[in-house]
Specification:
Blueprint (H helix, E strand, L loop, with lengths): L6 E5 L2 E6 L2 E2 L14 H14 L3 H12 L6 E5 L15 E6 L2 H13 L5 E5 L12 E7 L8 H11 E12 L17 H10 L2 E5 L7 E8 L2
Parallel strand pairs: 2-6, 4-5, 4-7, 5-6, 7-8
Antiparallel strand pairs: 1-2, 2-3, 8-10, 9-10
C-alpha cells in the first residue's frame, strides 16, 4: 500500500516519512505541546464562536454518513485527535495522516479503545501522500481542507489514491456561510470555487442539504 519510493519509520506506533535518513518534520498550527487541549478548543471555542455551529449536529451528520460503511479501505486527511472513531465502524481498514505527532498519539489511543484492528497513522502532508495509486474506497476530510497550502495538489493526490467511483466526504467552513463574520483560520474558498476545483480534477460534486453554521458539507465521487 505504501509507494516503494517512500521510506517509513515507525516510532511508538506512529509512522514517520524519512528523507536522507531523517524524519520529515512539519509545524502543526496548535503545536504538539498543546495537543491535549485540541478537543476542548474545538468544543468550547471553534464550533460555537468561530463557526457559529453545533458540534452535536456535526457529529450527527458524520454518524449518518458513516453508519453503513463497513469493511472498506478508508483514508482520512488530517486525523487530528481521532474524533472519527466516534462514528466510523471499527471493521474498516483505516489510514490517517496529520502533521501533528501529538494529535496522532492521542488518536492512536482512541482507535485502540474503539476496537480498531487494522489502522495506521502517518505524520505527513496531504500534498504528498505516501500511498500507492487506487488504494482507498473512501476518503474523509473533516474541517481541515482550508488549512492545506496547495489545495489543487491535494485534490490531485486524492484522485490518485482513491479508486474509480471512490468517494470523498468533506466538511469545511466557507465564507458565504460565515454569518457571524468571525475570523476563521486558513484559506477559505467558496462553495462555487470548491466545486470548480474538484470538478476540474475529475470529481463529481454534490452538496448536502445540511445547515450548520459556517460549515459546508459535500461529497465527491471520482469519475475518471
Amino acid at each position: 500500500m505504501i509507494k516503494n519510493t517512500i521510506q517509513v519509520m515507525k516510532t511508538k506506533h506512529i509512522n514517520y516519512l524519512r528523507e536522507d535518513g531523517q524524519k520529515i518534520k512539519h509545524k502543526p498550527w496548535l503545536g504538539d505541546l498543546f495537543s491535549f487541549l485540541y478537543d476542548s478548543i474545538m468544543t468550547r471555542s471553534i464550533f460555537p464562536k468561530k463557526f457559529g455551529a453545533s458540534i452535536k449536529e456535526h457529529t450527527r451528520f458524520l454518524e449518518n454518513e458513516c453508519i453503513d460503511i463497513h469493511n472498506r479501505r478508508v483514508l482520512e486527511l488530517a486525523t487530528g485527535s481521532g474524533s472519527i472513531t466516534e462514528v466510523l465502524p471499527c471493521d474498516n481498514t483505516y489510514r490517517g495522516i496529520d502533521i501533528s505527532e501529538g494529535l496522532l498519539r492521542i488518536a492512536y489511543r482512541k482507535f485502540l479503545l474503539q476496537g480498531f484492528e487494522d489502522f495506521e497513522l502517518f505524520v505527513c502532508d496531504a500534498e504528498a501522500l505516501p500511498f500507492e495509486d487506487d488504494q482507498f474506497d473512501l476518503c474523509i476530510c473533516n474541517l481541515s481542507l482550508n488549512f492545506f497550502n496547495n489545495l489543487d495538489r491535494v485534490v490531485k493526490e486524492l484522485k490518485r489514491v482513491i479508486i474509480p467511483e471512490g468517494v470523498f466526504i468533506c466538511s469545511v467552513p466557507v465564507p458565504e456561510r460565515n454569518t457571524k463574520d468571525s475570523e476563521i483560520r486558513g484559506h477559505l474558498l467558496s462553495e462555487s470555487e470548491l466545486r470548480t476545483l474538484f470538478e476540474q480534477n475529475g470529481f463529481s460534486i454534490s452538496s448536502y442539504d445540511f445547515v450548520n453554521g459556517a460549515i459546508l458539507y459535500f461529497k465527491g465521487i471520482k469519475i475518471d
